[in-house]
Structure formats: structure tokens, C-alpha cells
Design a protein that fits this description.
mainly alpha; 0% strand
């Protein structure tokens, strides 16, 4: 199973990750500009504010920035991403999509 396939469970969240590929490469960490662009991309991709905010917070606390950038590149090129990052993404995705249902 490729990284791109596994990540497609949360379409809006994945769209934000893919759209952010250029911004993350230009950034050095999860700075405010990065957060703002992530939120804008996630919401414009169909995510609710609550789900997008949850995702951004959990990405920041659960995935090292360098690994997030690597994941973005893998998503954009439909290559396999690091399994540790995929597992973290799956958990973030499931947890934040569950928040939407509460």
C-alpha cells in the first residue's frame, strides 16, 4: 500500500498537506505563516475549522517538522512515506475526524 493511498482517508486534511508542500519547504518550523496557510488550505479543501485546528495542533505536537516536510513531498509525488509518520498521521486523522462527530 503506498503512502499516498493510506493518507487519502481525510480528503480535506490531505488536501491541506498537499497544498502546503511549497510552504513547508520554505519554512524552517511550524511558524505562524505556516499555521495560517495550513488552516486556509485545510478549510478551503472542505475541512471544518475544528477539524483543521485539531489537525494542526496534533501535527505540531506529534510529527517533527522535517518529517512533515518529507511526508508532504511523498504525498505530492504519491511515493511511500516513512511508516512512523504514516502511523502518526493515521492517528491524528482518526482523532481529529472523531472530534467532528462529537
Amino acid at each position: 500500500m503506498t503512502g499516498g493511498f493510506r493518507l487519502k482517508a481525510g480528503a480535506a486534511l490531505l488536501a491541506a498537506v498537499a497544498l502546503m508542500a511549497g510552504a513547508a519547504v520554505a519554512a524552517e518550523d511550524y511558524d505562524q505563516k505556516f499555521r495560517d496557510e495550513f488552516m486556509r488550505s485545510c478549510i478551503s479543501g472542505g475541512g471544518s475549522y475544528t477539524v483543521c485546528q485539531c489537525t494542526m495542533q496534533r501535527i505540531e505536537s506529534g510529527i517533527a517538522f522535517e518529517k512533515f516536510v518529507t511526508m508532504q513531498k511523498a504525498v505530492k509525488s504519491d511515493e511511500k512515506a516513512d511508516q512512523e509518520v504514516l502511523d502518526a498521521w493515521d492517528k491524528i486523522n482518526a482523532d481529529c475526524l472523531a472530534v467532528k462527530k462529537e
